[in-house]
Every structure is written in C-alpha cells, then in structure tokens.
Amino acid sequence: MKEDIDFPKVKDVGMAIVLERGEGEAQEWYVYLVNRSEKDLEMVIVNSRGYGEIDGAAVKTATLRKLIERVPAASAVRVEPIMDELFDIANEFWLSYWQAGKMYDRKYVFVEGSVRDRNMTAIPYTGKMGVLII
User: How far is CA 30 from each of CA 72, 77, 104, 127, rounded to the nearest angstrom?
Assistant: First the structure.
C-alpha cells in the first residue's frame, strides 16, 4: 500500500529563476537547479510547464523535460532559459532524482508575480541574483 512506500523528504535541493545579465528589455533569465546537499544528485529529470490567466484568457505552455545525468554536491546547474513574459503566470518544475540509492521528487511552483525585484536574493554557487525555492 501507499503508506508502506518510503517517500524521503527533499532537503537542500531547490529551483531558482536567475537573472543572467542585461537590463530592461535585454534581460536574460534562466532556470537553475541548486544542490546545497553534501551528496551528488543522479539521473535528474526536470519537467516544466506554465499555466494561468492573462487578460482573462487561460494560458498553458508546452511541457518541457530535461535529463541531467549528474548534479555535483554543493553546485548549481543551468536547466533552461525562461522568458520574462512567463512571470505573469505560474511556472511549475517537477524534479525527480536519485541520491544515495533512493528516489526523490518534489514540485516547485513560482506563483504568478513571484519573480520580482523585491523577491530577489543571492543564488548559491552562481554569483547571480534571482528567486529561489528550497
């Protein structure tokens, strides 16, 4: 039964939306996977999608999938670019990975309007600013 399955809690692994460079309309944003743990992540799968409403119309993006074979301990890895027009809808990242022989998964959601200057912080291992969910 479901209660017999061990679902370990994800700790010290997060997703960030990072401002790479630029100002105004020349800004470039990327999604990063941040591994603050002391162990590598293996066979990482990231599913991403956006959804919400813009001007009263329902909006959904395509679902993107990315496989990353290994994310070293105490590091950050660039996953994909993201357009700032998508910050007005929710952006969901479903992360699954193996660590020390166990499978982990977690959903991270950047809600509408959460990627703003007032929510920016230093993103570990990147030297850049962005919005982080751990």
Answer: 19, 10, 23, 14
The answer for residues whose C-beta is within 8 angstroms of residue 77's C-beta and 6 or more apart is: 32, 33, 35, 68, 71
Alpha carbon distance 61, 79 (integer Å): 17
Q: Which two tokens stand for residue 13?
A: 């692994």
Three-class SS state of 84: helix
Note the pLDDT tens digit of each residue in 114-127. 999 999 999 999 99
In CATH terms, 12-123 corresponds, of 2.60.40.1400, 3.30.43.10, 2.60.120.260, 3.40.50.2300, to 2.60.40.1400
Buried b (16+ CB within 10 A) or exposed e, 64-93: eeeebeebeeebbbebeebeeebbebbbbb
pLDDT digits (tens, 9 = 90+) for 6-25: 779 999 999 999 998 766 66
Which residue type does 88 have?
Answer: D
